[in-house]
Amino acid sequence: MFQIEFPINVQIQTNTNCNALCTFCPYEKFSSKEKFQLMEWSLYNKIIDECVSFDVKKIFPFFMNEPLLNLDLDKYIDYAKEKNPSSLISIFTNGSLFSKTVVSKLLSSKIDEVIFSFNGATEETYEKYMKPLKFEKTKERITNFIKLAKEKRPDIQIAVHMLKLDIDERQIEAMKNYWNSLGVAVHLHKYENRAGNIIDSAAVSDFGTRKIPCSRLNQIYILVNGDVILCCADWKHEVILGNLKTQTIKEIWNSKEYETYRRKHFEGKFSELKLCDICNFNEVL
Length: 285
Prior knowledge:
Blueprint: E1 9-12, H1 27-30, H2 41-51, E2 58-60, H3 73-83, E3 88-93, H4 100-108, E4 113-117, H5 123-129, H6 135-152, E5 157-163, H7 169-181, E6 185-189, E7 210-211, E8 219-222, E9 227-229, E10 240-243, H8 249-253, H9 256-267, E11 283-284
Parallel strand pairs: 1-2, 1-8, 2-3, 3-4, 4-5, 5-6
Antiparallel strand pairs: 7-11, 8-9, 9-10
């Protein structure tokens, strides 16, 4: 399951901050008051350049943020693709910042995949979970982007991600049908507890679940300052595995601590691992 020599996917926080305070995300609690930072171009180059020597499947210039707050995101996307032409370059976005200028820059970039986080099937539910974003405005902007992309960049892969929140199933089906009618796939995901950083009854495990080795251990997660943390659930940065200003991805990826996490996942000893002991992402029925 795990590629030991080098991560299969590389996720990079090219900028901090988000323009949303979604109730299902720990951002408001842990990061919303932090000063905006942009990853140093030299550090980003170092990360991308190292990926050239390995068969990296995906590169995400996005992590714990809204990527479109980086006004030079197209520059970061293009550098990654030019250096790693066989890698898929992907971002997740809430889509609310899709002005004409932003859309034009993104469609002119070398982006391969755009995934929208759209949670809620009506104005009431969407604005409850994805505050302070507006349902109709954001839906319209995403719709316009999809239509323009189909015309100008039909090669871009587009999908919508929705969490299984406390939303009427009929409403979810109606929303799925809407995006499907635009030729876009909809992926439904479980509402996870983000390693205990989200406390909500809807995130409590169902009876009869068990844990399996986590797929997130195939991927490396890099913060704006170069710190490598365990995964996207580590909002308090509790497990810092190294820093790419002074180390390489390969060095950190093959470190003793990383290897311990991988081995104990295979052995099923989740309770012995910080964060993994309480995370429910890798629980199955």
